[in-house]
Design a protein that fits this description.
TIM Barrel; two-stranded antiparallel sheet; 8-stranded parallel β-sheet; single chain; 16 strands; alpha/beta; 7 helices
């Protein structure tokens, strides 16, 4: 099922003007068509939000944390990792809808099976510093909806959101570690996809709204999560009238997010809306806008594709990183496959300066990407038992 949120041209343009004013930016941005995003059509109850819940505590260095559940599998740092893709919370579930209860179950299932969260920035930089016998997993959260992250009127974090659930889970499971969520934000989308459900001018004074947005962004950065650009308002890049319009949607979107970030924060990850590429494909990772301003996205996230290879793999392309959509039953099935046959599962050796791999994966080792790290060949994992489920083949990418 493909989700489509149809936001009106008028609403998108009005939101754009408000964001540009907040950024202090002048100039015109072309918003010539309805913004296509992720449909709430399959959602009966919409984004969850309710009362109660704790505030978050700051993250800790990984070295100060307990190891928690691990596997006894041999290292394989040329295995694949899941870059999970979430959108809305709600019910019934669909391809881009997850109930909050199942999101919480996802956290527990992954933690208990030896997975640990990392960001795309960490993957890109090869900074996968997790305990021996564990597997990195990236959580990407598209569209910045209210059910993902919300502060209540009294200033406390809503526990019945994805961020609230994450904070609670981490407090109960310190080995889960710091950070690990990549928030792909739409700064000028219509409510509730505007900085996680912020209200419009007519409902909340601009100063109050912007203070809340800044508070959210500060929490994301200070707690080891990552900020990702998802275009200004979820514009379909394949429908841009020309390359410049596509670059404006991306570049002005980045500007509008960075208005609420520390001056030195570098956004390195960009998520393609609906997985659609602009006609000039390179515009997804670099371009000019606003009379010569430049942007560069070192990572471009696809909308699908299955588990991803790592930066030390010859097949790694940071401008086309596969993601794993957490559709009903999909994550559970993948965990079962890798439990039955871990051949292609990334397993850490516990040393971020050493890249350990089995001989069967040696052909994929990109030595030029090691960046001073040491490559080490290790014995392979035992063959799966007879009758075990085969490893999943990566599904085809979305068009």
């Amino acid at each position: 099922m493909r989700m489509e949120m149809e936001w009106s041209r008028k609403a998108a343009a009005a939101a754009l003007l408000a964001v540009l004013a907040a950024c202090g930016g002048g100039g015109d941005a072309a918003v010539s068509e309805s913004a296509a995003g992720d449909s709430a059509g399959a959602v009966a109850t919409g984004d969850s939000a309710a009362a109660g819940g704790p505030q978050a505590s700051a993250g800790q260095p990984r070295s100060n944390l307990p190891a928690g559940p691990t596997t006894d599998l041999p290292p394989n740092e040329l295995g694949r990792i899941m870059v999970l893709e979430y959108h809305r919370t709600g019910s019934p579930e669909g391809e881009f809808v997850r109930t909050l209860d199942n999101f919480r179950k996802d956290l527990k299932a992954l933690h208990d099976a030896g997975y640990r969260p990392v960001t795309m920035r960490q993957v890109l930089e090869g900074n996968i510093d997790i305990p021996r016998g564990t597997t990195p997993v990236v959580f990407t959260m598209d569209d910045a909806t209210r059910g993902q992250f919300y502060y209540r009127p009294d200033g406390s974090m809503d526990p019945n959101t994805m961020m609230g659930s994450w904070v609670s889970f981490k407090e109960q499971n310190p080995s889960w570690g710091p950070g690990g969520m990549v928030w792909c934000i739409l700064p000028a989308a219509a409510h509730p996809s505007n900085f996680f459900g912020e209200t419009a001018d007519r409902e909340t004074q601009r100063e109050q709204r912007e203070a809340t947005i800044r508070k959210k962004m500060e929490f994301i950065v200070q707690n080891g999560h990552e900020v990702c650009n998802h275009t200004l308002y979820h514009a379909r890049l394949d429908r841009a009238s020309n390359a410049q319009q596509a670059m404006d949607w991306i570049g002005i979107g980045e500007d509008s997010i960075k208005a609420y970030l520390p001056a030195d924060y570098d956004i390195v990850t960009f998520a393609l809306p609906l997985g659609m590429w602009p006609d000039q494909k390179s515009a997804a990772w670099q371009g000019t806008y606003r009379d010569g301003k430049r942007y560069e996205n070192k990572v471009v996230l696809e909308v699908s594709g299955g588990p991803s290879v790592t930066p030390w793999d010859t097949r790694w392309d940071p401008h086309s990183v596969d993601r794993f959509i957490v559709a009903p039953g999909a994550l559970e099935a993948q965990l079962r496959r890798w439990e039955a046959d871990p051949t292609h599962r990334y397993i850490s050796d516990g040393d971020p300066q050493t890249i350990s791999y089995p001989a069967s994966q040696a052909q994929y080792l990109n030595r030029s990407a090691l960046g001073g790290r040491t490559a080490r060949e290790v014995p392979a994992a035992a063959a799966p038992a007879a009758g075990a489920a085969p490893a999943a083949a990566a599904p085809a990418k979305a068009p």
